[in-house]
Design goal:
The chain is of the alpha/beta class. About 35% of the residues lie in helices and about 25% in strands.
Length: about 325
């Protein structure tokens, strides 16, 4: 047996978005039906280096296939200024559940960005209006690019409005998509009035108000991944159809974490989990729905599902080209 070593370019090449969206939907379904194991994320705090490590293991059985793996992630805020390295880096080990053999070691940073976009696309497909054609993006960092790519795979997006305080980021974003969409810079309110809105910022004070949103806007709240982060006004969360990815994670570190712990928002305000929708236990968008919100924290099963897509595509190409992998069992 051989272990594939796949860098970020490989991960991007071998994860076509349509396949990725389908796999992430399978992951949400497996989690909902009890066909997945996902222990809590564990942390190693390193205050002496102003950073930490996080481990995210998971196993899932999607019926036609099963998969296991673990993502090892760091968060070191001083990296860009002191070491010319990204704040967040990750490595994914994808293993054969039957034997435990490591089938692939792949870049987890690119994998995370792509599976995060795919998760937003799954929610968009179930919660946005069918004829959604405009997409707003608040926050033009690296995560914003896969939001556009993934959501455009499930809706016929024509117009994209991007809002960010960093003009260089906005310019780079527009340059990347100007040949595919009618893309322009706009205010937060202009972005939020689109049919679909994805927020991908690290803010701790809400920047999107209820008045900013369109009557039927679907919001993917993707930025909050730690305690204290909060992009959407409490009124938005209280009045919207609110769907989460995982109760424990979202109440701890998702978009709802601040109002939940302040007692502003409670269990009765959560309409369901995305897994309940994809398995048909509860409805997605109905004609009575106005604004809908998906609170996404990112789950380890998503990484495993995405790694499965990458590995299968890379293996298929290796068989066609007879390109050897870099590590062989027993070496």
């Amino acid at each position: 047996m051989q272990t594939h070593l796949l860098d970020g370019d490989d991960v991007q090449q071998y994860s076509p978005m349509t396949a990725l969206v389908s796999a992430i939907e399978d992951a949400f379904a497996a989690y909902e039906t009890g066909d997945a194991q996902m222990p809590p994320k564990s942390y190693i705090d390193l205050p002496q280096y102003n950073g930490d490590f996080r481990s995210m293991p998971a196993y899932m059985d999607a019926g036609d296939w099963d998969a296991a793996g673990i993502k090892w992630v760091n968060v070191h805020p001083d990296n860009p200024s002191e070491f010319d390295l990204p704040t967040v880096m990750g490595t994914m080990i994808y293993s054969d559940p039957e034997t435990g053999f490591p089938l692939a070691i792949m870049d987890g940073t690119e994998l995370t960005m792509r599976r995060t976009g795919a998760a937003a696309a799954v929610a968009t497909d179930h919660l946005a209006v069918e004829d959604a054609s405009s997409l707003g993006i608040v926050g033009a960092g690296v995560q914003s690019y896969t939001q556009v790519e993934a959501i455009a795979a499930v809706r016929d997006i024509e117009e994209v409005v991007v809002s960010d305080l960093d003009e260089a980021r906005v310019a780079a974003f527009i340059d990347a998509f100007e040949d595919e969409f009618d893309v322009r810079e706009g205010s937060i309110a202009e972005a939020a009035s689109c049919d679909v809105l994805s927020t991908v910022t690290p803010v701790e004070s809400p920047i999107v108000s209820a008045e900013d949103l369109g009557e039927h806007t679907h919001v993917n709240a993707m930025g909050a991944d730690a305690e204290g982060k909060h992009e959407l006004a409490d009124e938005v969360l209280l009045n919207a159809k609110l769907v989460i990815d995982d109760y424990d994670q979202t109440t701890h570190s998702g978009e709802i974490n601040v109002p939940f712990h302040e007692g502003v928002l409670g269990d009765d305000d959560i309409d369901g989990q995305i897994g309940e929708i994809v398995t048909g236990k509860i409805d997605g968008r109905t004609p009575e729905d106005g604004v809908t919100v998906f609170d996404s924290t990112g789950l380890a099963i998503q990484d495993v599902a995405a790694a499965h897509v990458v590995y299968e595509a890379a293996s298929a190409e290796d068989e066609e080209t007879q390109t050897p992998s870099l590590i062989t069992a027993g070496q």
